[in-house]
Amino acid sequence: MSVNKVILVGNLGKDPELRYTASGTAVCNFSIATTESYKDRDGNRQEKTEWHNIVVWRQLAEICGKYLAKGKQIYIEGKLQTRKWEDRDGNPRYTTEIVADQMQMLGRAGDDNSAGPRREPRQEPSMNQSPPQNNYDNVQFNPDDDIPF
Amino acid sequence: MSVNKVILVGNLGKDPELRYTASGTAVCNFSIATTESYKDRDGNRQEKTEWHNIVVWRQLAEICGKYLAKGKQIYIEGKLQTRKWEDRDGNPRYTTEIVADQMQMLGRAGDDNSAGPRREPRQEPSMNQSPPQNNYDNVQFNPDDDIPF
Amino acid sequence: MSVNKVILVGNLGKDPELRYTASGTAVCNFSIATTESYKDRDGNRQEKTEWHNIVVWRQLAEICGKYLAKGKQIYIEGKLQTRKWEDRDGNPRYTTEIVADQMQMLGRAGDDNSAGPRREPRQEPSMNQSPPQNNYDNVQFNPDDDIPF
Amino acid sequence: MSVNKVILVGNLGKDPELRYTASGTAVCNFSIATTESYKDRDGNRQEKTEWHNIVVWRQLAEICGKYLAKGKQIYIEGKLQTRKWEDRDGNPRYTTEIVADQMQMLGRAGDDNSAGPRREPRQEPSMNQSPPQNNYDNVQFNPDDDIPF
DNA sequence: TTTT
DNA sequence: TTTT
């Protein structure tokens, strides 16, 4: 009885990060920027950029890790999810992410947005970054789990 | 060159809060829940509820303040916006909200989702709540501003 | 490299029609109305209703046949598809439908939009209707086919 | 109490056609293709292309007429509308179009999807084409009308 | 053909 | 941190 849907078209700010949970499930993180232009009260054109944290799981994670790169323009469809975590002082903190289940690379073949792997899919060495980076180490997925979030 | 769109169908967790900026612009805040059901690894049906903070401005804010109420099911369309604020220790904190520009009340006349004002639009007494409540007092809008965010 | 998405919230004009292809694949057809209100040049409020033909396949078709009914308000997500057929004079004709892959019943339990089967899922006796009714008799699906359209 | 929304990312099949109603309102028509790939029952990758007729009004029509061209990849957001017309034998016919209110050119500067006017906005000489081309000649709009469809 |  |  509910709908939770996000649709974004934007550009990656950095290369995506592909990782694996302890049980071997692929997860890919990256952020994309959307920019809105508007006129301020003086009639001058201004821009406002919004950054969105994207999480992708399983097969689509592998594809994102393999084909996406900094600067690429993509279409993302997914759902909003707010994740709770604790900062170093044990205080509760919340981070909102888009859990994407569809991704389309935009632009046409021949430009930087063309198909074809950009590089060897690079697995990130570790996950010691401070939040909002998720640490999935303590998540005990089976690789074939139908992960519900 | 970008798209930032959120579509939600969910139910209000509380009555909406209608306020006005110092310059008289109406702003309405409320949160809605979306619930997803899935089967866990034991095959049992589980539910996961997500809460979304909604912000509405100007005329639509007045409508939301007047017609929405706790429990009502609505359709929301808007954009994602992450707002930065400081906690009491001066640390940067971020809250993600949906700035809605379309709202539809769902359900049919005769149920609790019917049309007709639920009450006198209630203006909240103050805005001294802790974040993620936005404090718009220091925002100097003109009422007719084309507020860009 | 493309996106084809339709999102509708509207009411069924009639009970849905559930059928099966020769190979046993369930297909459900119904139409929903969306209504837009606007002001004409005299400032009078006018309404314009749009009718949308919905097609649903397989498991979701069974659900729609079982739970939907005339008047119910639903959320539909799917894709646009234009189907070519021939009228009685052999002229080519085109009908645009929404092939839905997600459906949500709206409203809350207790009203007419509540859950629970409305009746025995009724299979339509035949398909001798004139277009835009699709005649799937000559479609040779295997029940488990991953029907691509 | 309803929602009627279409979201497309696709490529123009031809240059857009910019026209004006008798009262001077700009209207732009073009079609875009979306392509879906799937595997047939033999496991072979197949493609299915869908064509969508787009109608844009007023200021956005001028922009589309000026900047869009055959082959360009765009994002379109709008609503479904089925228009009734009569064929030469006086039989009723129906054409479904997307009335777009948002358009974004995709891809990055430097490729064929770059910004900058492609040519002088070309006004089509006449509108004697057979349907589904709309003939707006008998529509009596005032240029500033808030055209409701 | 629905609904408000 | 992107892009225009």
From TrEMBL, chains A, B, C, D:
Residues spanned by motif Important for interaction with partner proteins: 144-149
DNA damage is among the record's keywords: yes
Residues covered by region (Disordered): 104-149
One BP annotation, GO: DNA replication
Pfam families xref list: SSB
MF term (GO), any: single-stranded DNA binding
InterPro entries: NA-bd_OB-fold (IPR012340), Primosome_PriB/ssb (IPR000424), ssDNA-bd (IPR011344)
Keywords for the protein's UniProt record, in alphabetical order: DNA damage, DNA recombination, DNA repair, DNA replication, DNA-binding
Bias-annotated ranges (Polar residues): 125-141
The UniProt record lists the keyword DNA damage: yes
Subunit structure: Homotetramer.
Chain's role: Plays an important role in DNA replication, recombination and repair. Binds to ssDNA and to an array of partner proteins to recruit them to their sites of action during DNA metabolism.
Protein name: Single-stranded DNA-binding protein
Originating organism: Syntrophotalea acetylenivorans
Lineage of the species this protein comes from: Bacteria, Pseudomonadati, Thermodesulfobacteriota, Desulfuromonadia, Desulfuromonadales
